[in-house]
Amino acid sequence: MPDIQCVQFDPDTGVASLGMGATPRLISGADLLKQIVVLAYLRNPGQHVLQPEEGSGLRQEIGQYNFVDDSELKSLFVQRTSVI
């Protein structure tokens, strides 16, 4: 089932950003799967009314820690992925 694209990916860096383009676009398949995963990472637990247990809580962590290297950040993502 297609959905409207609300997550944009930079073609050079692959960085995701939220927002719709000038013209709304329907997505499906792998693009829809990527959008679902990004939105799940950005959602805090309790934010979705019908599924309050859903969400990684990574947005709550932004700015709380000073990550020295990528391995600490990757371990946080791995931990939160197991939560989702």
Count of helix runs: 3
Element string (H = helix, E = strand): EEEEHHH
Helical percentage: 25-40%
Largest sheet, in brief, is: 2 strands, antiparallel
How would you write the strand order of the largest sheet?
A: 1-4
**Which overall shape is indicated by the principal axes computed on the Cα atoms?**
globular
Which ranges are low-confidence, i.e. pLDDT below 50, for 5 or more consecutive residues? Answer: none
Structural class given helices, strands, pairing? alpha+beta
Total beta strands: 4
How far is it from the N-terminal to the C-terminal residue, by CA? 22 Å
The value of Rg in angstroms is 14 Å
Strand content: 5-15%
| Mean pLDDT across residues | 78
Give an overview in words.
The chain is of the alpha+beta class and 84 residues long. 37% of the residues lie in helices and 12% in strands. Strands 1-4 form a two-stranded antiparallel sheet. The chain has a two-stranded antiparallel sheet with strand order 2-3. A hairpin with a 6-residue loop joins strand 2 and strand 3. The model has no long low-confidence stretch (mean pLDDT 78).
Describe how the helices and strands are arranged.
Elements lengths: L2 E2 L2 E3 L6 E3 L7 E2 L2 H13 L15 H4 L8 H14 L1
Antiparallel strand pairs: 1-4, 2-3
Properties at a glance:
84 residues; alpha+beta; two-stranded antiparallel ribbon; 3 helices; 37% helix
